[in-house]
């Protein structure tokens, strides 16, 4: 058989939703939630990539929106993969998420690579308006288990 057997995947959808403080302290909490969500169900999505991209979304929401309104993290696990969304109060779309920036990131700058990572490492990504601002999201597919010779 090619790929994982159907019974190796989560049997149904599961989702988590949590309000996070509008501060840098939200980043490690968001990473931990994604790691826990993927581990609890022994989900087949790449946990390291999910954590990295979640950290980028949360850090962007904190850095590029003002005020102290909490941001919200939504993690949805599906049989085909996972989707992570970060909701923030700013309705403006994130720059260069779905259309690549034509300039190369400055190698000397600490910022400017988050959206590039999200575009490059996710199977899809985007944003949508919400009643209170916007949601920025990415999806990762289930990764087949590695075959280990005896």
Question: What's the arrangement of secondary structure elements?
Answer:
Elements: E1 14-20, H1 26-40, H2 47-64, E2 71-78, E3 81-88, H3 114-121, E4 124-130, E5 133-141
Antiparallel strand pairs: 1-2, 2-3, 3-5, 4-5
Overview of this structure, please?
It is globular and about 45 Å long. Residues 1-10 have low confidence and may be disordered. It is an alpha+beta fold and 150 residues long. Helices cover 27% and strands 26% of the residues. It has 3 helices and 5 strands; from the N terminus they run E-H-H-E-E-H-E-E. Helix 1 (26-40) packs antiparallel against helix 2 and helix 2 packs antiparallel against helix 3. 29% of the residues are buried. It has helices at 26-40, 47-64, 114-121; strands at 14-20, 71-78, 81-88, 124-130, 133-141. It starts with 13 loop residues before the first strand and ends in a 9-residue tail after the last strand.
